[in-house]
Write a structure and sequence with these properties.
Layout (H helix, E strand, L loop, with lengths): L21 E8 L3 E3 L5 E4 L4 E2 L7 E4 L2 E14 L3 E8 L3 H12 L4 E7 L5 E3 L6 E4 L2 E9 L9 E5 L30 H9 L32 E3 L5 E3 L4 H9 L6 H15 L27 H6 L11 E10 L15 E9 L2 E10 H6 L5 H28 L2 E7 L7 H13 L11 E4 L1 H8 L20 E3 L6 E3 L2 E5 L11 E6 L4 E5 L3 E5 L6 E14 L5 E7 L2
Parallel strand pairs: 3-10, 4-11, 5-11, 18-27, 19-22
Antiparallel strand pairs: 1-7, 1-12, 2-3, 5-6, 6-7, 8-11, 9-10, 13-14, 15-16, 17-26, 19-23, 20-21, 21-22, 23-27, 24-26, 25-26
Helix pairs in contact: 3-4
């Protein structure tokens, strides 16, 4: 395994400096293949990686969300790939990460992304791979073996104002013993008051803390810190090695997520004040886990069956020539008589794509806070979900508007057993073999009342006509979890976008998937952060079209539950 060179840094210069604890590297190389742990191979097109702001991207250890090492401070799109710079947090874990990066023992960066199915397709240049056109970056793991071998560190920055060296992870170091806390000091008036109230005089300095012993092997780089905060002679809380107010902000605010700062605050409070958890409720707010419970999604079975790719030229109408009519081209011949010419005509069918759009208005404060998960990602996922549902509705609207030939109006018949319904349906399917071209329809999408009637159909003895298990002399079967009803080879699938349940006649559709077409572009995200001061706008835009190229390949089934 090869590592990139590190901008002229050597092991002798590594130490810790709060001003320059950074690592920088390529998180996604453009155009290169990477393999996910599930075995799939991916390639990202240039510009496909999206993020709200670098500061909301956290660097973690080996994709463990509970071990955050730092946060992003900058991101840039380069010819080599998407490059990010991270600020590494204070503390032993951050020190260890810098040491391993600097020594070259660990140099991998691995992205964590949200990818919608609409934003990826088969890679035309690599068989079996997926090409990602857009992905939302949610985090980056500092790993030994990244999915993309070119996702590596470019530079590691760490310096020390005190000129200390020897912090290379392969060099033994002896940690210094942390200094004891400064003693509390009281004025003469305070001492007199305590003596008058039986509280003694000037307190002695507190006992020194136990000597720090590092349980890790001696080769591990260790950085010790002085007391983070202290009290001055007037009992005012002042800065030690850190500022209490800044640690409160960075440690307890999810936008910063500095767990090291939070730990310093909590340990200091416990040591100095010996309080119960109920006394510091305000300092321990309820925090969200990294898991977000999203809205359940509708599937799009009809659109998935007719989808033929993106429109040929975006918004531009397109057409294809098609058969119109023919007659008299072949006839019985009479000897010596010239046959009469037959006729043949064709026509053109034009399809005009239409646009689908949407917009969300987000206050600047909400956008800047981001959250975990990011509010921008949540809104965009909801937009793409709505876009897909709109495509399913367009497919049904196209079938409704075409008014195809009907197979008939079917009734329950014979009470609620469904025997007559089953018989009527089988007869109608059998008749399709006698239309021109035969029974080529391969897709039946059923409205809820028809579907439930088929699932519940029974013979005179109460035996299911479409059983789920052990079919014997049955008209068909029901698939697992009632996901489909097989009517003697015609697979009826449920469709939520057809009419809701009711007591009026409703339509279902049987069609040849080659006779009905749908086209749609991948939805495009429009981010408008600078047109207002108070708000950020996020938009969605896409083109789609649906058409029936051969109406003879479509049949309507009308079911009347009454």
């Amino acid at each position: 395994m090869e590592f990139l060179e590190f901008d002229d840094l050597t092991a002798a210069t590594f130490s810790v400096d709060d001003e320059r604890r950074t690592i920088r590297g390529v998180v996604i190389p453009w155009g290169k293949l990477g393999r996910h742990r599930n075995g799939r191979t991916w390639r990202f097109s240039r510009g496909s990686l999206k993020l709200g702001h670098a500061k909301y991207i956290r660097l973690n250890h080996e994709h463990d969300q509970g071990q955050r090492l730092g946060r992003g401070i900058s991101a840039e799109d380069t010819d080599e790939g998407f490059v990010m710079t991270f600020k590494v947090f204070d503390g032993p874990e951050g020190d260890k990460a810098l040491a391993m990066a600097k020594s070259g023992r660990k140099t991998g960066l691995s992205v964590e992304v949200d990818i919608d199915a609409l934003d990826m397709s088969s890679d035309p240049e690599n068989t079996g791979a997926l090409l990602v056109d857009m992905a939302n970056l949610t985090g980056v793991g500092f790993v030994k073996n990244p999915a993309f071998t070119d996702s590596r560190l470019i530079s590691v920055m760490a310096s020390d104002d005190n000129g200390r060296t020897g912090m290379d992870p392969d060099t033994e170091t002896t940690p210094a013993t942390p200094p004891a806390p400064a003693p509390l000091a009281f004025s003469a008036e305070q001492v007199a008051w305590m003596q008058a109230n039986g509280l003694g005089g000037q307190p002695a300095a507190p006992a020194a803390r136990p000597t720090f012993v590092d349980p890790a092997p001696a080769a591990r780089a260790v950085v010790t810190e002085p007391v983070p905060y202290r009290f001055d002679a007037d009992n005012n809380l002042v800065s030690g090695s850190h500022d209490f107010g800044m640690d409160m902000i960075q440690g307890l605010n999810p936008a910063f997520g500095d767990t090291t700062a939070r730990r310093r605050v909590e340990e200091f409070i416990a040591e100095q004040f010996d309080v119960a958890s109920s006394n510091v409720t305000a300092l321990n707010p309820t925090v969200n886990t990294s898991r977000y419970i999203d809205q359940r999604e509708f599937r799009s079975p009809v659109w998935d069956r007719i989808f033929k790719g993106a429109p040929i030229n975006g918004i531009q109408p397109f057409a294809w020539p098609k058969f119109n009519s023919a007659s008299g081209l072949v006839q019985a011949h009479t000897e010596g008589v010239e046959p009469t010419s037959g006729t043949f005509t064709n026509t053109n069918q034009t399809v005009t794509p239409t646009a689908t759009s949407g917009k969300a208005k987000i206050t600047r404060e909400t956008w800047d806070m981001g959250g975990m998960p990011g509010v921008g990602n949540l809104i965009w996922k909801q937009m793409t979900r709505g876009y897909q549902e709109a495509l399913e509705a367009k497919a049904i609207a196209t079938l409704d508007a075409a008014s195809p030939a009907s197979l008939g109006t079917f009734t329950t018949g014979g009470g609620t057993t469904g025997q007559t319904l089953s018989a009527e349906l089988i007869q109608a399917f059998a008749r399709l073999h006698f239309v021109r071209g035969g029974f080529t329809m391969d897709s039946l999408f059923a409205q809820i009342d028809l579907y439930l009637a088929l699932v519940g159909a029974r013979d005179g003895s109460g035996r299911p006509l479409f059983p789920a298990m052990g079919p014997s002399n049955a008209n068909g079967t029901v698939r697992d979890r009632f996901g489909a009803v097989d009517v003697n080879g015609v697979l009826a699938l449920p469709s939520w976008a057809l009419a809701a349940t009711g007591i009026v006649a409703a339509s279902s559709y049987l069609f040849d998937s080659l006779a009905v077409d749908g086209w749609a572009t991948t939805p495009r995200q429009l981010l408008m952060p600078e047109i207002e001061v108070a708000h950020v706008y996020m938009g969605i835009w896409g083109y789609s079209a649906a058409a029936i190229n051969d109406i003879n390949g479509v049949r309507e089934l009308i079911y009347d539950p009454a």
